Amino acid sequence: MSFINLRDKIVQIKIVYYGPGRCGKTTNLEYVNRTYKKQIASEMVSLKTHGDRTLFFDFLPFDIGKIKGYDIKIQLYTVPGQVKYNATRKLVLRGVDGIVFVADVMEKQREKNIRSLNQLHENLQLYKESIFKIPLVMQYNKIDLKEYGIPILPTAVLQKDLNSRLKVPFFEASALAGYNVAATLKKIIFSSVISIQKKLL
Amino acid sequence: MNYGIVSQDQLEKIDAILEEKLVKLGVDCAIVIDMAGNTITAKDNGTSNYDVYSFAALAAGNFATVDAMAKLIGEQEFSLLFNKGQDSSIHFSRINDELLLISLFGRDISLGFLRLNVVDAIDQIRALLV
To answer: Residue A24 class from Cβ within 10 Å (0-12 exposed, 13-18 middle, 19+ buried)?
Structure first.
């Protein structure tokens, strides 16, 4: 749930990047942090293991300016993707306003994507949220691997696997190269702001 | 309280309580956050310069983790959450199911005295939010 400070006219919006291990959630945030460094006042916080795997979450706050006189503060989080960390994934989802589901387009990751999305559905129910109602954007990441001859899933297959019932906006992306990272972020910010406005009216 | 929106009046009263009970005592910074990691309000002594937003995100994560560990060993909660440093220390306290009070303080305040004031502050904030 977003927090709205009526005195200081600030709206804080929590956006979580969710997906299976090594799909590129942290890479998305790192790209945003690197590219928009000048607009980001805070340091990116990463709680990770020695092997650079996310242990708890990454956190990146930034301002996007004003909407109707209210300062909008976006707070990006990632969850740890590894299967064993579901308890921490649940904690990070608390109070979420919008979700980017990052799917790994590598063929061998097909099942992991589906499992992760199913778990997201279950985890949201803990907070009485529905995956069908919460602002959600799909990102099919690592599309650049195609150039290296690594077998990847066609977007049509990913859409069928992950988005046939949800029917949410989706992007093919390469978090490493930055392709469609900003587009994904813009879309989820837009959907989240609209959703919050609807709740308030 | 309609959680998610705190009225101007409530915020000002919470600020006044933090000022009176904690900042006057010598606390460097007192922050009220919610369990999702949002900053509700922060009051400091004018000299501290913390990144309150990152702090809130980490504090909420930390509190939630410790809370989950308590439940794993059959405890309702750990009542004292306190990190002691060389020059600065942090004290965490639950206000209600949604809100946390965090106090950052230096060496010149005793933990016992701080805890007494935190209890008072929390009672007053709870009364506001009913």
So the answer is: buried
**Which parts of chain A have pLDDT scores under 70?**
1, 201
C-alpha span between A140 and A123 (Å, rounded): 21
Is residue B29 a contact partner of residue B50, using CB atoms and an 8 Å limit?
A: yes
Which residue among B4, B7, B53 sits closest to A2, beta carbon to beta carbon? B4
A9: left (phi over 0), alpha (psi -120 to 50) or beta: left
Whether B41 and chain A come into contact, CB under 8 Å, resolves to yes
On whether ipTM exceeds 0.85, the answer is no
Domains annotated on chain A, with CATH:
3-196 (3.40.50.300)
Top-tier CATH class for B8-129: alpha beta
Q: Where are the domains of chain B?
A: 8-129
> Structure pTM?
0.88
Q: Of A106, A143, A163, A120, which is closest to residue A17 (Cα–Cα)?
A: A120
